Amino acid sequence: MAGFVVVGSQWGDEGKGKIVDVLGSKMDYVVRFQGGNNAGHTVIVNGEKTVLHLLPSGILSDNATCIIGPGVVIDPFVLLKEIDALEKRGLSTQHLKISDRAHLIMPYHIKLDELHEQKLAQNKIGTTKRGIGPCYADKYTRIGFRICDLKDFEYFKEKLKQTLAFKNDQIVKLYNGEPFDYDTLIEQFAKIKEALLPRIIDSVKVVNDALKENKNILFEGAQAYMLDINYGSYPYVTSSSPTSAGVCSGAGVNPKALDCIIGVVKAYSTRVGEGPFVTELFDEFAEKIRSVGHEFGSTTGRPRRCGWLDLCVVKQACLLNGLTDLVITKIDVLTGIDTLPVCIGYEIDGAITTSIPASLNDLAQAKPVYKYFDGWKEDICHIRDFKELPENCKTYLKFIEEFTETRISLVSVGPDRENNIIIHDLV
Ligand code: GDP
Ligand code: IMO
Ligand code: MG
Q: How many CB atoms lie within 10 A of CB 173?
């Protein structure tokens, strides 16, 4: 069996999409296991850019069957648009399948996400307003809709009648919003059902059969460790488990299926939305990193907050995910910066720790303890051999390995599929 996991080790947008695409050609299956279209995964092949939100990033490799797994929440309108956009470019999506257990993001989830954020005002989470939180909330309240419910449309219609009455009450009475019309929704979902039906599968059986046959399966995470509902900077998190633990529940496999667990680490830090960010920069370096690294959200277009590399976060991500390998991305963006601070501890109330505190107040007041590294000036995008990197760049990378006690297997030096330095073969 060969189960590969790709997860984000910081606050998301580390370049997971690129890495899944790079490994995709060697995979038989690529399975998304959590999140929804809050994700924005950018893949660049021969200069051509594709931004994926719900489709697994293996979709551009013809050999890999791509599955939207049971733990994902699906906005069917967005999914159909994404499929259509690829098909219009002449790219096949025949190899895309959808788990019968995945939940549906309903139009009222999106509305409730918006209205709730509005109500929170200055305390807002800064969500992507894609209905993610309200959809997962309904899943756990046990009033959610699953993809398999579309198959039994009479049941779907009946259930929607009851649920919509409840949701419209919330929208109108609590938030003074506009109610949704039942007949319009039924009409829309009748079409969605027809479009999605041919792709619906029992993914648990398919994936476990494939594991038995020794196929290569890559489990693709969205978001990242610091956005994890249990271990991130709660409440400034997403509503799912983007860690390797989430693979088992979200893809329907047991822990023995996870052989190689790859954490993607950006060479610096970024965060979108609200919440504490210990190494955040507000000076010209933030501007430089944002402009050189094109740090603008692929889903919402918001400027990403930028900061120095926080190894307390990465070390904790190694621990909680059981990372076997690191992939460092965007190291090329740091070229030309004279001194590179790296956070190796937090000072909280005069004491130094490397643990991420649970309390938001502690995290918000933590002061970074930095170790300083000399930068490099040479362009490194064309380099394909670790030995050829500037000495200072090698020192920076080796320190990441040493501090996290996890080996770096790949260094990404540019956004294209080809811009990689392979140190250890992952597959
Ligand atoms: P994801 O959400 O983790 O898949 O990451 P995003 O796609 O949202 O953001 C990563 C961005 O960095 C994308 O625009 C990628 O094209 C780009 N990228 C990925 N790896 C590299 C790299 O090594 N160097 C540079 N300069 N850009 C990269
Ligand atoms: P990828 O997969 C970066 C952030 C939002 C917000 C918080 C909660 O591209 O790395 P949500 O809409 O999930 O309820 O928002 O999580 N967030 C992301 N930040 N990358 C992502 O995905 C994100 N998905 C959600 O900005 O702070
Ligand atoms: Mg992203």
A: 9
